[in-house]
Structures are given as structure tokens and as C-alpha cells.
Amino acid sequence: MPLKKITSHLCVRAVVASVSLLVFAMAAYASASESPRVTADFNFDWKFHLGDLPEAAKSGFDANAWKDVRLPHDWSIELPYSEDLAGATAFLPGGIGWYRKRFEVSAGDEGKKIWIEFDGVYTNSQVWLNGVLLGSHPNGYTPFKYDLSEHLNYGGENVIAVRVDRSAYIDCRWYPGSGIYRNVKLVTTSPVHIPQWGVFVSTPHVSGDRATVQIQTDLTNGSPEFEALTVETELVFDSQVHGVARTSFRLRQGEHYQLRQNIELKNPQLWDVDTPVMYDAVSRVYAGGELVDMVVTPFGARSFRFDKDTGFYLNGRNRLLKGVCLHHDGGLVGAAVPKGVWRRRLEKLKEAGVNAIRTAHNPTSAEFLDLCDEMGFLVQDEAFDEWNNPKDKRHNYNQQEASPLTKGYTEFFSEWSERDLKAMVLRDRNHPSIIMWSIGNEIEWTYQEYQDAPGYWGENKVEEASYYWTEPGYSIEQIKENFENAPKGEYNLAETAQRLADWVREVDLSRPVTANLVIPSVSNFSGYAEALDLVGLSYRQSMYDYCRRNYPEMNFLGTENWTRYHEWKPVLEKEFISGIFLWTGISYMGESREWPRRGSRSGLLDLAGFESPSFHMFKSLWSEEPHVYMATQPLEGSPYRWDETTNELVDKEENWAARQKWGWQNVQEHWDFQEGAMIAVEVYTNQSEVELFLNGKSYGVRKLLDTSDHILKWFVPYSPGELKAVAADAKSSIRTTGEFSQISLSADRLELDADAYDVSHFVVQLLDEDGTPIRDGDREVTFEIEGNARLLGVDNGSVLSVQPHKSKRIVTSNGQALMILQSTREASEVTVRARSGNVVSQPLKLIIR
């Protein structure tokens, strides 16, 4: 493609390009330390005040009495849960908060371009520098920046002030957090420079022996002189340079230019979910022969495609998307999630065989996507949960009325959606993990004509039509007639979808555009699906064949699905479905309508990152590692009954298992019941058959081929002892426990960097005198901490726990609890113990260096 003109006044005097395919020594690759561009960590030394103080915008305001905070910071998670608040946002308050930071800029930096980057502020932020309002940003999830150059005191002190307004605290359907909850950076560079997100690296052609790497570089000349520029781009991997492109041209003051360079990469190391290899594109800008800017852009060489008939291909290999949806909170840390917390959680999901993530339902952090690149996750990057019409946060899907407290971003959507959507795509487009852009989640249910047309609800309802389990009650012709005759609102959904999709394609054509459709029987013909490259289906496995039959030219996949085997089975049977995204990978805060349920328990992992029963079900489906997991529950109260004719446990309700939606049946991982109680035993496994033993007595063999729900079941009268499930290559056992007498304390890391970011997870497990985990008895545990480390908080993973997080005390759930410590910037040795009554764990030594 030719060089692209961005402004109408661009004057290019000459272009000379050379491309080298040779492999150069490391000496040719200079590190970022040589760069005249300085990207400073701007997270430290902030002051915070909860409450509105309009005078705090003034540069001379005295904030010395305010609280010292380090960003990222979420003030809501630090406050107590309250029954008087709304469950949609986890019974935690919002409010208005102010942040201030004093900093100095060298006199030698005058004349340079200096800007501040916010990766996310929730929400409705305003930013002042030295008393001058720089601007406002209403979206709480998208990144933004402000140019500081004209308002700085060079050689002196400066004050930046940020007001965050979340007084409309029910502005979301889940817990969003409050404050500057993502990273902040200060960038200083030359007037001749690459602007924010100004490098785009893609690999349009990839094969086993070569890859075409296309580098698009934006240039801005803020210098008063006519500049002769050269842009040099090197591809670096494993301390070696694997190709160079150089282009020279001239650019006048105030002009902007977009340059395209191609480099042929021989024998590329491909980015894949199993081998996530990353390269660096090192872009240097020379003006008059002097190095004036340098940007390092990580990227991956990979190819992918979606085939409407045979599914998804990565680097030419057909793969099923084993995906999960994730909200952006991290349990006890709220929305300000350290990278190490995400790493622990993603490692557990990887263990279950997860290979894809949907960022439900808004842009995630840049740091999270870095981890997805590094760890080998495929990502659907999603922009919006609502467009012009608000969703009723108090009643969720039961749409009634949105009050001023609950309208949220919809008040700004018309004015801001283009900027926010493009900001997401521009920031994220270099991540090889991202394979599709999503413009919206379940938007249709805010448009009445979409709800009324298919015959599932309202006056048009057809009695035998069941939204989740059947095809529509009307023919397509009748649905179209219902839709056309229905009264329309102010906004046209299909037209909005087309605008959003077009805006994405203006920035990136290398990935498909999708959305999560909740009423595809209407959206497939209304123009909504036609705006998309991929049609995502939300809980619509009953519609897979309908969509394929009636819309064979469209490309479908499941983008929101229950954590149930009956959601995965159709993917194995229908080649045209590329995969699914489970709701959810990790339980999340909010979206509740009853106290004290602070969140959803639908995750493969719970709020503390502990494994749920569904984790083991999907590990048995998605992982090749031999796996057997056993769970128990009293027969009374279970979904089963004993069939004396067949001597089997069967569903109390016909097709019960095939109709299960969110959550999981109430099973436990213990063998502690009343003597003689009738117990239903479930085993989740990828082994072909399993034999169950109680105290050495066999209760028979069960085979997966004989099941319809991928669950092996036994009926066992309770007797104390050991229950064991044995397969050819794996086994699992649980034992009756004695009295509580020990505490196991473990940590995922015992050495941390003294950078004030690194974290360690300390996990408590209650034990009996034999060291058997106690899952059916809970106690308050106190963490004793000696030494200099930051306590991020405690949690037990239960959605019914509304205990304070900023505490050293926690009542366990299933005998477990979690504490997270974070390093400071000082080297130290920290000793941690856990105590419950007179029982104390062995100490653990945490070294911070």
C-alpha cells in the first residue's frame, strides 16, 4: 500500500527505502535507554481525598493532609459493603474523589513534547495542570492522554489534579471500581516524534519459512525548522536483529505523515497459544541525522482466519476456541488489579485448558493484554455493554426503567463512542493475542422492536417458544413483519452498528469485527449482523442450526455460554461453530439483586481465584492432562433421585442437566456427613471409566460413554473413612476429617522485587490432626505480618462474604482464605503466620529485594 497522507498540507520531498533481510549482531540493536523519548512511571506520590472539593483544582491548594496513595487505586473496594446500596455494583459506594500530584520538569525539557497517559479512570474524570483544565473524559474504561507542554513550569514545580465523579454509583451492571485504577505514564519526547499509538505492526502474510511484517508509522513534526527525516525500523528477536527498513523524506512544521514499511522475516518464530513468541519492532526517527525519537513495539508473527464452514485457524491449524469471559475486577483488590494477581488467575485458567478470553464487556487494561500475549491467550477485545439506550442496572435483563443514577455511559455515547472505540483499537492493535474486535454486548434487549418480534416475550409470545431452548415461535417472514410493524425508538440499532464497525475498520483491517447477539432471529436480517464479520451468539445454542440453515453465508460462534457440558457438546458436533466463551472464567463482583450476595458465582474460579467444581468439569473437557475430580452432596436436596429399577442416579426432572444455566449444583469437596446419610457422588473426568471405593469396598465402575452430561454418578450411604475414585491414569480421594488442629499456610512466591508492584498470594487451609483439609467447617483466621510489606487485603472467595477486605482477619470459606501482600520500594524480610485461636501456622519468610 502507498504512503498515506494524513493532512492535506503534507509535502514529501523524497522517499528512499531499503530493506535488509540479513541477520545482524546485537550490536546493531540499541536498547531503549539510548532513546531521547522518556516514558516515566507516574503512579507514585499521589494524594487522595474522598469527597468533592472544587477548590482542589487550583495549583496553590494545600493537600498535605490528604491520604498518600500509589496508583493504580480503587477507593470503593477500601470501603465497607452496605445493604443500603445496590447489588448491581456489589453493595459498595461510589462518590467523588480527588487526586493531586506535585512533580518537577527540567528546564532542559522546554520545547519538547510532553503528555500524560491514563490507561483508565472510573469515571467522568477531569484533569487540571497548574490550575488549567486540560479536559474531561466520561468513559471509565478507555485510555486517554493530555498534552502538558504549553502549561508546564519548566525548571520548577507543577501540580496535576484529577477529579473523578462516580456519584451516580449504579452506572454499571457489575462492579467497576472508582478512581485512577489503571497505570499512568508521563511521556517526554522531541517535537519531531511518533505520536501516542503511532506504530502499527501487522503480519499480513505468514508461512513456515517467511513472514511479511508491515510497519505503519505515524510522524508529527512540531519543530519550527524544515526537517529531513529518516525512519529506521529493526525487527529484534532473541537479542538479534532479523531485518531492517529505512525510509527518508522531508516534513514541514505542523505536518503529519503516515509511513508504510515492509520487512520480509525469514524462518519466523510464530506466535501461538502453545508457543507465544514475541518480537520487537524498534522504530528510530532521525532528524538532520540526529536520533530524536525511538519507540519499541512488541508484536507476534502469526496468521489466523475464521471459516464459516470449518471454524477457526491459527497459523494454518484448525483450533477450537476454548474461551472464557472475564470482567476486570480482581476480587479483594477491586478494579486496581496488580499484574501478579492477573498472572496467578490466568495460570489457573491455562491449567484448565482455556485458550481464549473475551474482555466482557469493556476494554481491559494494556497490562492485561501484555499478559495474554506473553501467556498465549486468544482475545476478543470488547468495547461497549450499551449504546444509546441504557440497560436497567437494578433489574438487569428484566428491563424496566433507567434512572439518572443508572444511565451511565449512554448519556455520552453519541458524542464519545467514535473516540473511545478508536482509542481501544489504536492502543491494542499490536497485540498478537487479539483476534477480533467486539463492538457490543447484548445490545438488542434495549430496543423494544427487537424484543417484540420473535415470539419469545410480550403480546407476541408463542406459548411453545422458549427463548433459551427452542427456535423462534414464528417464521422468518412473520418475525420480519412483526419487526417492521413495531414502533421504533429514537435510535436505529443496525445503523449504529454499521458506524461502529466502520470506525474499527478505519483503524484496523487485519481483524474481524463481531458483537455478542442476544436476539439473532431479528438481528440476522435487521442489518445488525450484516455490519459484522463474525456473528457472536449469546446463550443461543438452540439457534445454531437455525442460523446455519437460514443464513449460510454468515460466520457464527458462541460468545457467551454457560459453564456446562451441554454448551461444549454442540461445538464438538458442529464444525461451523468455532468455539465458545464461558460465562465466566472467574466469578466477579456485582450483578446481584440480593443481600449479601456481592457477586456472581458462575466462574471456573471463585472471587479469590480458588477452583470451583466447574473448573474441574472443563479441565476434564479441555485439558489433555489425566484428571479425576470428586464432589459430594446429600441426595435429599440434590437434583437426583435413586432409580431402583436401573440402580442408577437419574435426574429428578427430565432433561435437568441439559437445561442448567448459570452456576453449579451445590456440591462439596468433602466426606463429612451424618452416619447413614444418602450421598450423591459426582466425578468429573477425562478418563474413559472410573471405579469408586469407600473404605476399600467397590461401588462399581461408571463409563463416560454411558453419560449424557459428562458426569459420573454414584449413590453411596455415608460411612466415615476414605472415598476414592480410581481411573487408569488418575485418581482422587477425600477423607472424613477430625477436629481442627492445624493451619497450612502456603505462598505462590517467597521472593519479590522491591518495586512496589510485585505481589505474593498467601493461602490458608484448615487441617485436622492428620493433615486432611477441612472443607466443612470455617473459622476466623488472623494473618500476622512482621516486616515492611503492603497488605492489599483478604478474601475467602465466597460471594456471600461481605467481610472487609482491608483487614488481617477473615472467616474462611470451605476451610480456605487468601491474603495478598505487595512489595514496597525498600528491601526487607517479612515473616507471615496465620492464627486461629491457639493454632498457629508455621512461619513463611518473604524476601523483598
TrEMBL record:
<dbReference type="GO" id="GO:0005975">
    <property type="term" value="P:carbohydrate metabolic process"/>
</dbReference>
<feature type="domain" description="Glycoside hydrolase family 2 catalytic">
    <location>
        <begin position="308"/>
        <end position="446"/>
    </location>
</feature>
<protein>
    <submittedName>
        <fullName>DUF4982 domain-containing protein</fullName>
    </submittedName>
</protein>
<dbReference type="InterPro" id="IPR017853">
    <property type="entry name" value="GH"/>
</dbReference>
<keyword id="KW-0732">Signal</keyword>
<comment type="similarity">
    <text>Belongs to the glycosyl hydrolase 2 family.</text>
</comment>
<dbReference type="InterPro" id="IPR006104">
    <property type="entry name" value="Glyco_hydro_2_N"/>
</dbReference>
<dbReference type="InterPro" id="IPR006103">
    <property type="entry name" value="Glyco_hydro_2_cat"/>
</dbReference>
<feature type="domain" description="Glycoside hydrolase family 2 immunoglobulin-like beta-sandwich">
    <location>
        <begin position="202"/>
        <end position="302"/>
    </location>
</feature>
<dbReference type="Pfam" id="PF02837">
    <property type="entry name" value="Glyco_hydro_2_N"/>
</dbReference>
<dbReference type="GO" id="GO:0004553">
    <property type="term" value="F:hydrolase activity, hydrolyzing O-glycosyl compounds"/>
</dbReference>
<dbReference type="InterPro" id="IPR036156">
    <property type="entry name" value="Beta-gal/glucu_dom_sf"/>
</dbReference>
<feature type="domain" description="Glycosyl hydrolases family 2 sugar binding">
    <location>
        <begin position="92"/>
        <end position="189"/>
    </location>
</feature>
<keyword id="KW-0326">Glycosidase</keyword>
<dbReference type="InterPro" id="IPR051913">
    <property type="entry name" value="GH2_Domain-Containing"/>
</dbReference>
<dbReference type="Pfam" id="PF18565">
    <property type="entry name" value="Glyco_hydro2_C5"/>
</dbReference>
<dbReference type="InterPro" id="IPR008979">
    <property type="entry name" value="Galactose-bd-like_sf"/>
</dbReference>
<dbReference type="Pfam" id="PF16355">
    <property type="entry name" value="DUF4982"/>
</dbReference>
<dbReference type="Pfam" id="PF02836">
    <property type="entry name" value="Glyco_hydro_2_C"/>
</dbReference>
<feature type="signal peptide">
    <location>
        <begin position="1"/>
        <end position="32"/>
    </location>
</feature>
<dbReference type="InterPro" id="IPR040605">
    <property type="entry name" value="Glyco_hydro2_dom5"/>
</dbReference>
<dbReference type="InterPro" id="IPR023232">
    <property type="entry name" value="Glyco_hydro_2_AS"/>
</dbReference>
<dbReference type="Pfam" id="PF00703">
    <property type="entry name" value="Glyco_hydro_2"/>
</dbReference>
<feature type="domain" description="Glycoside hydrolase family 2">
    <location>
        <begin position="743"/>
        <end position="842"/>
    </location>
</feature>
<dbReference type="InterPro" id="IPR006102">
    <property type="entry name" value="Ig-like_GH2"/>
</dbReference>
<dbReference type="InterPro" id="IPR013783">
    <property type="entry name" value="Ig-like_fold"/>
</dbReference>
<dbReference type="InterPro" id="IPR006101">
    <property type="entry name" value="Glyco_hydro_2"/>
</dbReference>
<dbReference type="InterPro" id="IPR032311">
    <property type="entry name" value="DUF4982"/>
</dbReference>
<keyword id="KW-0378">Hydrolase</keyword>
<feature type="domain" description="DUF4982">
    <location>
        <begin position="676"/>
        <end position="728"/>
    </location>
</feature>
